[in-house]
Specification:
19 strands, five-stranded parallel sheet, alpha/beta, eight-stranded mixed sheet, about 30% helix
Length: about 425
């Protein structure tokens, strides 16, 4: 069986490794970019994603290029601690949460694909623009090279669309869908060498009713001054829709464009304003997502990752879910009988939970606790329990875990996608 994957991002690369792992040796990835480059900022691999990459033999390599995040702390803008979410081994997790630069994760995966599947397994400068189903049931994908200077076709038995929020595979399957939806907010991201905070192994989420900042260490390395590399993301609603059709997450902007909105943010243990200001650069993108789809799979074609369920970046779910998609897809193709039944089983496993997660992330995911405290105590509080009862906080955590963003039980057991 020949399998063609459109897109050499995290999901596409993990899919290739997973398919090879279960015995498919004729797998090829086509990627629009002229070359693979370690772009982006920080990403988080939740324990259930780390579990899946460990099953592919990548755990030791990932640990060396990442930082372990043992807890997530949610703080009010005024400095009060709202909630602590323990992700440490002591809380029963078999795998850690790993925070690292997306480029490092991408490099680990790409090098593993080339080592295991061959140097020609990833074809760059090959943008998939559409595909057709042939009379024999196979698929023929149309590819543009050199920004349309030339074109070619590639045939396969299975086509996997892992080509992102503006997926050409998705557009072919759902031609009337239109552009991604802008959620009314903009996110700025960057990295800063800064002194460790909260012990160096905690993710910070802070804000008020309108603005948020997330910060975490993403490497175990430190410089001569003891500083560590910190990833940060700041978000706020913006007026108008001028940027609503932009999904370039690698667009540089000066800090002056957003820094005034976060002036004076100091939690005592971390000067948030300085963290943002001291970054070597910043990147901007609008907060976009897609409407949930009623169907991912048609015949011998399916979707995964952002192509299937692009969601707002809440709760560190996007990268994790793309990895789990890839593992589930390989499992179903290896165990699910004929191709159409296997792809239907994959969709049955993944689409309902991802639909719920997409919708939940529009409502801020677990970060909703920050808005809840601000609504009830905008001037601050002495104890979070005075504002939000512990049972109510626990209910937020339970509901978010139920829809698959992070499953504590699954993160302490073996992978269900191992053949």
């Amino acid at each position: 069986m020949e399998i063609l994957i459109a897109g050499a991002g995290i999901g596409g690369l993990t899919a290739a490794l997973s398919l090879h792992h279960v015995g498919f040796d004729r797998v090829r990835i086509v990627e629009a970019a002229p070359e693979l480059r370690p772009l982006g900022a920080g990403v988080n691999l939740l324990p259930n994603a780390v579990r899946e990459l460990a099953a592919l033999g990548l755990f030791d390599e990932l640990v060396t290029v990442s930082a372990r995040t043992d807890e997530i702390r949610y703080y009010a803008r005024t400095g009060g601690l709202i909630w602590r979410d323990d992700r440490s081994a002591g809380s029963g997790h078999r795998w850690p949460q790993l925070s690292l630069h997306r480029g490092r994760l991408h490099t680990v995966l790409a090098e593993a694909v080339r080592a295991r599947l061959g140097a020609d397994a990833i074809v760059t400068d090959a943008r998939l623009t559409g595909f057709t189903e042939l009379p024999d049931g196979r698929l023929e994908a149309a590819l543009d090279h050199g920004r349309g200077a030339s074109s070619s076709t590639q045939r396969a038995d299975v086509l996997v669309g892992a080509d992102g929020i503006r997926s050409a595979v998705r557009a072919t399957l759902h031609p009337d869908e239109g552009a991604p939806s802008w959620r009314g907010s903009t996110v700025w991201r960057g990295t800063t060498w800064a002194p460790p905070f909260l012990g160096g192994n905690a993710m910070l989420v802070t804000g008020d009713g309108t603005q948020k900042v997330v910060a975490y260490t993403m490497s175990s390395e430190s410089d001569a001054e003891g500083r560590v590399l910190v990833n940060w993301a700041a978000s706020r609603p913006v007026d108008g829709g001028a940027d609503g059709d932009r999904s370039d997450w690698n667009r540089p902007v000066p800090q002056t464009k957003f820094l005034p909105h976060f002036e004076g943010w100091d939690l005592g243990f971390l000067d948030v304003t300085a963290l943002l200001a001291d970054s070597a650069g910043a990147f901007e993108y609008p907060m976009l997502d897609r409407e949930p789809l009623p169907r991912w799979s048609f015949g011998h074609t399916t979707l995964l990752g952002d192509a299937a369920h692009a969601m707002c970046p809440m709760g560190s779910g996007g990268t994790t879910q793309a990895i789990i998609d890839a593992r589930a897809l390989a499992y179903c193709l290896a165990t699910g009988g004929n191709t159409e039944d296997a792809l239907a089983a994959y969709e049955e496993h993944r689409r309902p939970a991802m639909t719920e997660l997409q919708l939940a992330n529009r409502n801020m995911g677990p970060e909703i606790v920050i808005d809840m405290t601000y609504d009830r105590a905008p001037e601050g509080f002495r104890r979070a329990s005075d504002v939000i009862p512990a049972a109510e906080l626990a209910d937020v955590a339970r509901r978010h875990a139920e829809i698959g963003a992070f499953d504590p039980v699954a993160a302490s057991t073996g992978s269900p996608w191992t053949v």
